[in-house]
Amino acid sequence: MIEEEDAVEFIDIDILVNMVKMAFAMENWEEVISLSTRLLETAKVIASHPSKTSGERIETKRHISYYFGYSYLMQGLAFQKLKQYALSIECIEYYRDLSWLNDSTDEAITIVEDFNKFAKANLLTLDILTGNRNKLPEYTEFLQQNPDQILSGLITILESAILYSYNVDHVLEPLRSHIRDASFYTEQVLATKYLSYSFMLALYYSLNDHTQEAIIISLHNLSLCDKLGNDKYFKKTIALFETIKIYASVSQLEEYSRILKIIFEGEISNEKGHRFSRSFSSSHFQ
């Protein structure tokens, strides 16, 4: 007999997938792990009880194999972001070969093949993140063959280059040509990825004597963070700009001041009884 609690889980499984995606977009890695674990438990319940009653099938938007693979995939990605690479590899081993689910339907076989590809890509990603530069040509080739992975791949390459202090200029240019304008990345997960990439690129440039590029990207990021309402990267970008503003031109400092003035005016105007100080000027940021 299926418990009432299980019935609630049946309804919630696709909502759980969306919750995992939202937590990932917010870069709340601990929440991603927690929700992915709950998703896995829910998938197990559904797999154990394929119908609520003898004649009523449990409806899910995707094949049950997908939920098993997705739960391990997202846990692995969260552990990767937390730099807990051993745990990430453990998760990869689960979704690398989902044949243990013993489902020979065409849909299940396709899902197994898809997650096997994800596993190969993510193992290669871990090689890059742990500083294995010898894998960089192979990783670059993989990204060029899978353009939809280039945004995430650039974040990985930049993170590794910054952490292990090596130059990847020769890799960046061909891959960056695939990146679309920021207006293309409006979906929340993609928007966060774009901000992460853009911030990492500015940081990389600031550390590799491309200060003007870092300044230009940072100014662009500030406006974009405000538009997207992303406080995390707004604060990180301000912190970065403050370290390199001594290299900024007068016009760039004025642009910095103008952006902040517009943003802070909007914030303060929402507070009852406050008026934005007219003394706010570019001299405060020089």
Element order: H for helix, E for strand: HHEEHHHHHHHHHH
Roughly how much helix do the residues carry, as a percent range?
over 70%
What proportion strand?
under 5%
Second-tier CATH architecture of the largest domain: Alpha Horseshoe
Net shape: globular
Quote the CATH topology of the largest domain. Serine Threonine Protein Phosphatase 5, Tetratricopeptide repeat
Runs in which pLDDT lies below 50 for 5 or more consecutive residues are 4-11, 272-286
Structural class: mainly alpha
Main sheet properties: 2 strands, antiparallel
Protein name: DNA-binding protein
Give a structural overview.
This is DNA-binding protein. The structure is a single chain. The protein is mainly α and about 290 residues long. It has helices at about 5-25, 30-50, 65-80, 85-95, 105-130, 135-145, 150-165, 170-175, 190-205, 210-230, 230-245, 250-270, and strands spanning about 50-55, 55. It has two domains: about 1-130, Serine Threonine Protein Phosphatase 5, Tetratricopeptide repeat (Alpha Horseshoe), CATH 1.25.40; about 180-285, no CATH class. The longest helix has 24 residues, at about 105-130. Strands 1-2 form a two-stranded antiparallel ribbon.
